[in-house]
Every structure is written in C-alpha cells, then in structure tokens.
Design a protein that fits this description.
Helix 2 (27-35) runs parallel beside helix 4 and helix 18 crosses helix 19 (425-437). This protein folds into four domains: 6-77, no CATH class; 87-228, Creatinase/prolidase N-terminal domain (Creatine Amidinohydrolase, Chain A, domain 1, 3-Layer(aba) Sandwich), CATH 3.40.350; 241-379, 3-Layer(aba) Sandwich (Creatine Amidinohydrolase, Chain A, domain 1); 387-675, Creatine Amidinohydrolase (Alpha-Beta Complex). 37% of the residues lie in helices and 17% in strands. The protein is an alpha+beta fold.
Amino acid sequence: MATASGEYGGDDSLDRLLRQAGLGRSAAEIRALVAGVVAAPVGADPDAWLELLGGARLPAALAAELKALRAAMAAERHSRSAAVPDHAARIAALRTELSRRGLSGFVVPRSDEHQGEYVPARAERLAWISGFTGSAGLAVVLLDQAAIFVDGRYTLQVQAEVSSALFQYKHLTEDPHAEWIAAALPRGGRLGYDPWLHTVGWVERLRAVMGRVGGDLLACPDNPVDAVWPDQPPAPLAPVVPHDLRFAGKPAADKQADMAAALKQAGHAAAVLTQPDSIAWLLNIRGGDVPHTPLPLSFAIIDDEGATDLFIDRRKLVPGLEEHLGNRVAIREPDEFGPALDRFGGMAGAKVRVDPASAAAWIFDRLLLANAKVERDSDPVMLPKARKNEVELAGTRAAHARDAVAVTRFLAWLASAGPTGEVGEIAAAAKLLDLRRGGGLFRDLSFETISGYGPNGAIVHYRVSPRTERRLVPGSLYLIDSGAQYLDGTTDITRTIAIGEPTPEMRERFTLVLKGHIAIATARFPKGTTGSQLDSLARHALWQKGLDFDHGTGHGVGSYLSVHEGPQRISKVGNTVALEPGMILSNEPGYYRTGAYGIRIENLVAVQPCADLEGSERPMLSFETLTLAPIDLALVEPTLLTSAEIAWLNAYHARVREALVPQLDPATAAWLIQATDPVMA
C-alpha cells in the first residue's frame, strides 16, 4: 500500500507525530505490525482494533491507511477461501514429499505448538490437506490411502466437507487412529509426525503400537505439509495489550507470587507454561493471534521465586507493555526458548514442571536431551484461572446482562422476520453480530456463530457458508449458538426457535432437553463433585425415551479468554477435577435428528456455595445461571414438566423480564413480556 502523505507530508512527518503522541513506533513499524496480523483481537470491530494501536493518538492519514489495509487483507482472505481447493493435488504433493523423505506416511492433527483448540491460520494444516474445518480431528496420510478421524460432534460435518474418494471417515474414539495405522501401515513402515503438534503421551502410546507391528515412528525436523503449502499464511503478529486490573481483579505480580509459592510447596524449581490462555491470565495481558479469542501465542517459564521469562515476538508488544509486565518479567525472543530449556540440565536436582496433557512432545524431548529432571504435572495456572475472583464474576454478570439485550432484540426481530422466508442463516448471524456491536466493551465474537436451520441445525458444530446456507421458512427449527468477547467477560448462548408451528415431536424432544437443562441448573451437590458425576442429570429424560446427544453437557468458560476453558467440564468422559466456587461452565444438553433438525438449550452457569439447604451435613455447591434470554415457549410441552420444573422456568423468565425490560425499546419490551408469559401446569 502506498505511503501516507498529503496533509502530513510523508513518513517523516508521520513519525514526528507518532513520537509526539508517545506511541514509540515509527509509521513503518506500525504498518509491519498490521500486515502481520492474521486475526486481530477485535476483528469484528475495526475501530476498537485500531484503538489497541494508539487510537485517537494515531495520525488520521495513518489510521485511514491501516483501515484500508485491514479491509484489503480481509478481502484477500475471503477470495482465497472462496476458491475451490484441489485436495487431491495437495495430497499428491504431500505423498511426493513423504517419498522424498523416505516416509511411509504422516500424521496431520488439528493443532498448533500450544496444543490448543484455537489455532492461527498458519496452523490450519488439517483443513488445508482435507477440507475439514472442525475444531478437533486428525488425519493420517499414507502413500496409498488416507483416513480422517473425528468425534461425534463432526460426523455429519466431515462427510459434507471431506471427499470420501480421498479419505476414509473414522470415529476418533470408536475406531482409534492408532489401530487403523497398525493395520494399514506396511511392516517396517516409517510414520512421520511433527513433535511440536502432539503431546508426549500421544507419542508414547503410538510408539508402543508401532513397536508391536514392526514400524518406526519418526519425529520430523520440519513439517512436510508446510513444505508443500505454497501460500501458507505467516505467523500472526497481533498486538499484545495489558488487561486492565478493573477487569482482571488481581495484579499480575500477586498471581506470580501465588504461582511461586505453589511451585515451592510442590518442590518444583520452575514450570514451563505452554498454554497461551494461562500466560495471558497470569500476566494480565491479552492478544489476538487466533480468531475470536484474545490469546497472545507465546511460551513462558516461571520459577519458584516468581521470576518469569516470556518468549514472544517483540513486534507484538504495544508501547508501555513492558512497564505493565514489571521487572519480574523478562521478554525473550522465541528462538531463546530451546536454550532456556537446556539450562535445566545444568541444575542438579532441580525439578522442572511440564504438563504432559498440553505441552508439545518437542519440549519433553529437548529437556530430556539436556538431562533435565522433568516433573510431569498439570499446568499450575489452570485451576487458579478457572476459579474466577469476585471482580471477574461481577464482570461476567455485567457482560451477560449487556449480551442479553442484544440477544433479546435479535429474538424479537426473528419472531417477525423468520417466518417470511426472506432471512437466511448468514443474514441471521450477521444481524445478531450487528446488535452485539452496539454493546459496551464489545471486542469480538467468542467463536464463529453456529446458525443452522432444519437439517443444518442437526450438525452440532455446523459452519454456515454460501454453499450450505438455508433460508428460514415455516415448518422446522432454527438453532443459533453464539457468543461474544467483552473486556469484562465471555458469553456463550444457544437458543432453538420454532419457525412457524412446531410438530408434536419437536415439542416433545425440546421439552426433554429442557428438563435436562433444568436438572443441571437446579442441581445441589457436595463439595468434591466432578462434572462427570452430574452429566447423567442432563440426559436422564432423554434416556427414558431411548434418546441421547453426542457431545458433552458443559465446558468451562474463561474471563475475556477462551470460550472453551479447562480443566472443569460436564461430560460422560471421566473427569477427575472437582467443581469449585467461581468456575464458569456451560449447561447445554441437546438432541439432533439427522436430516431434520437440531435442538440445544445453552446458558452459562457459575459454581457457588449452596446456602439455602437447611440442616445440610456437609458443604454443598450449586449453580448460578448467568445467561439471561427467553426460552421459546412455543416448543415447550407443559404436560411433560413437573411442577418444580415449571416453577424454575417461570422464575427464570421473571428474572429475564426484570433485568431486560427497562433496557429495551417499547416494542421489544412488549414482545419479551409476551414471550415470557408464565407457563401454566
């Protein structure tokens, strides 16, 4: 893009103005930073995004130039994504590369160096090679065949996105990839993997399988997919900014001191932190290196005195960030991470803590090669981060209250616009985004909105596109699962809406899901209870009819961080982490009839002490419902609800009315009052 000039007289004048504004960067440096941004932390709001780079202090010519550059980048990405990729040619190129390296196959996971669900465009290798865009999955490409493995959430999606002529479809748990590899790989075969993209546990399990079948598992020094991906996006360079204490609730120095004390008590000299959300929470910073989640991709090492080394590209740091971090945090370049790990080999008896569930196998390999004493233990930040403090809880309540206004205005609009047949899934999602943008402290969506009508609603993690979009017409159900990132909290809500008159079956299935939702919302449970012990409450009513759903009932949620946060969750799969006060989770049972419709009802809840049980003999916990939005009463069959369930529904709707009616325009308020009319037994 051309250099800004005109009223400011070129870069020299711009640089002078930037210095006067105290931004500490030249115009060229700011342009380079912007050009490296793949997913800005406020991608849905360009003005807020520019605010992170200096806002009103930016010269007008430069601000206009940056906006134009962002628009051009977005158009280029859209154009690239709209092109129909030739996955057969990509697989052929990868097989040629594997043959050149003497490999019989290669494993392509959907992950990056941080093993997270949220990855930058550069790490979307699974999507590039196969077409699958889900948030979890894995492909194995051999020289003569290939398979893709996904869980039950993506059974329909993978069939829609991935060619059966190129990949066999496999269930991630029912037909494990290790067993498929063992059967498909020729004896003596050499299977490659990228040690940055897998955990040490995965490597050890697969190596044991390979040993049984006479094969070799080999760590590749560089990724073969990258070698054949000609237009692979660059590494992201989104701005890293302070997260204000009025939202964080606790100074970073205090968090570091707490971590140091915990390490000392455990006898660990230091901990290697590999999860960007842990680092963001610990240091009270936020970034934007991945879509919709304010993560600064980085690594860190904290020792038992609280001193922290942060390994990050300095170009990401906004002026003043180093002052915010303080003198207990040292900024290191990313290529200093390996040598920093090596130094633990020279510290006799010093235990370095690394989480085997989330750290890349490369990190363990490097430490062991240096003869370091590695202690396999959980990320020490995860639990403190999950236990939201009072400021974070107050912030998330405020965020949900603002979000509720937008969602309710959307539902009122949908009530009249939906049945006309003129609204499509894309337009509906865009309408909700526009309404959210008007709320204070809004920064972005918290994930790409799931907007599915009829059969598309039965795809649990459906991603709408012009090719798959359906128009809303009377006769089926519309499911919208969406959320937002506000500076004071993260939201996630799902509502299922009848477009026109629902069938008796739809009403029955919806009410069974509602019964499960209420069972979780009203649960009382002893301290020490895990989410897996509660999961069956959400499924009981469905099970009585021979029905179920193929996803967890609830996931943890962060505070202006990841919409999917561990270690807490509510699911069938065994979870040994007890629920504790301050933890935020989703409550989202569902039902999906393939080819017809999907149902999900999702609110966020916070774990709290249960103070209303008289005569309780042990400490008890309960849930506070955070989300405020009406549930579609047209889909409720009252005869299937108990009196206690009807009382909960009416009380919830009364709370929604009380909180929202004063904030709504008269027409929307009138709609809400009618939409939340008490249900009669």
